[in-house]
Amino acid sequence: MKIAMIMAASLVVSTSSFASLQSANSSADLTTHTVASQAKARALAAEYVASLNAMSGAELSKKLPHYHGGVDVNSFSLTNTKIITVIDLSHGGVPAYKGMIDIDYTYQYNAK
């Protein structure tokens, strides 16, 4: 009977600690440096997306912004990425290009 009460108490404690985890969906916009061609801008952005896809959750937590305390750094995962190229004419009218990456991701944090 004593063992059953201890097990029941530990179950209540463990479920209450997990019940406070919340999921967050977030997004970030990243930009490559300016290059001379649209193809190069797209290639730079694609390389960066590939490197993000190869990262662990802990590595992603260092690269992507998060706004909650008590973040579970291992819970970070990418849900979607989108690459576009943008023309930049601010260099004396000479066209230059930047790759823009829209990243959607999720992570968990302790809501306490």
Q: How large is the share of residues in beta strands?
A: 35-45%
Protein structure class? alpha+beta
Q: Give the overall shape.
A: elongated
The total count of helices amounts to 3
Low-confidence stretches: 10-16
First CA to last CA: what distance? 33 Å
Percent in helix = 25-40%
- Radius of gyration (CA) equals 21 Å
pLDDT average, as an integer? 86
Described by strand count, sense and barrel closure, the largest sheet is: 3 strands, antiparallel
- Total domain count: 1
Q: Report the order of strands and helices.
A: HEHHEE
Number of strands: 3
Q: Which strands sit side by side, in order, in the main sheet?
A: 1-3-2
What does this structure look like?
By secondary structure, the protein is α+β, with helices and mostly antiparallel strands. The protein has one domain (22-110). Helices cover 37% and strands 44% of the residues. A hairpin with a 2-residue loop joins β2 and β3. The radius of gyration is 21 Å and the shape is elongated.
